[in-house]
Amino acid sequence: MSDRLSDYSYELPRKLIASRPLSQRDESRLMVLDRQAQSIQHRRFRDFPEYVGVNDLLVLNNTRVLPARLFSDDGGIEFLLLERLESRRWRCLAKPGKKTRVGQTTLIAGTRATVQATTEEGERIIELEKEVDLYAKGSMPIPPYLERPSDAQDNVQYQTVFAKESGAVAAPTAGLHFTPEMLARLPHVFLTLHVGPGTFRPVHTENISEHRMHSEPYTISDASAEKINLATRVIAVGTTTVRVLESACDANGNLRGLTGSTNIFIHPPFDFRLTDALLTNFHLPRSTLLILVSAFAGREFVLEAYAEAIRERYRFFSYGDCMLIL
To answer: Is the dihedral of CA 239, 245, 247, 252 positive or negative?
Structure first.
């Protein structure tokens, strides 16, 4: 256990960052970690059903990514719409900041946008003269480390096959590996957490316990809660799912249907009350996601697995390979 940010770091060769998805979602590699045996296996994601028992239950996040990245008509300002506040008012990220001070205006898709306020976190509140059709004018907010603009391939592949509820600005990437055919064979339920930028914001405090997450909205249906409560083993698909499960359950690990929000930051030590197994991608060093995985499987074991993944030339991050922790 460690509360020092520097203890959650590793060196990754740039060439191992997956810049594009595989043509077949289930062809990604799967590293299987057994926490009790402290063992590591190398498989393919198409083998994943072998690890799901008849009394197990997959819990997946069915949020849908909005094409929420927009550029001013002159190309000088980039906006990432985060949350609709009213019909034409949005909370957003904007850069460069010097061009988006309070009172300044610009054109987006021919529509005047006015900066009304700046939040404590440096976000902007903008008002549009009229609605902008994001699906016609926006683009997918793929991660900046890909260092390329999004394209038609991302419109399809940066979305899970079960995405339904629109509202995220980033994909729940552990779910990207599933095909409709595989999912149909496995016992599963959905919940929704609209992934915001807070999940991916860097940790700036060396003492990780001082880091504060932004809130993200979630919904759990009564039917999903009931099935989760009855499951022998709950397999969370992705860190966003873990955050909802561990935020929403009571002290005995039971859920009820509800809508709420969570700013939970899971870091060692943490008592997982509902999550029995975790499917997740390989995450950035010093990130809240890597810290969560370390809380679940142990920091030393996780970093050992990451070192082996690098040796074995796994593909990392959003479009990369995945890890199943049992």
So the answer is: negative
3-state secondary structure string across 2-59: CCEHHHHCCCCCHHHECCCCCCCHHHCEEEEEECCCCEEEEEEHHHHHHHCCCCEEEE
| Strand positions, DSSP E, the chain | 29-34, 39-44, 56-61, 63-65, 69-71, 78-84, 89-95, 105-108, 111-118, 124-128, 165-168, 188-193, 216-220, 233-237, 258-262, 277-281, 322-325
218 and 84 assigned to the same domain: no
- Rounded CA separation 113/33 (Å): 49
Q: Which of 137, 162, 177 is the last residue of a domain?
A: 137
Residue 85: domain span: 69-137
Is residue 216 located within the same domain as residue 87?
no
- Residue 134 φ/ψ, nearest 5 degrees: -60, -35
Q: Could you list the pLDDT tens digit for every one of the 326 residues in the chain?
A: 799 999 999 999 999 999 999 999 999 999 999 999 999 999 999 999 999 999 999 999 999 999 999 999 999 999 999 988 988 999 999 999 889 999 999 999 999 999 999 998 889 999 999 999 999 999 999 999 999 999 999 999 999 999 999 999 999 999 999 999 999 999 999 999 999 887 778 899 999 999 999 889 999 999 999 999 999 999 999 999 999 999 999 999 999 999 999 999 999 999 999 999 999 999 999 999 999 999 999 999 999 999 999 999 999 999 999 999 99
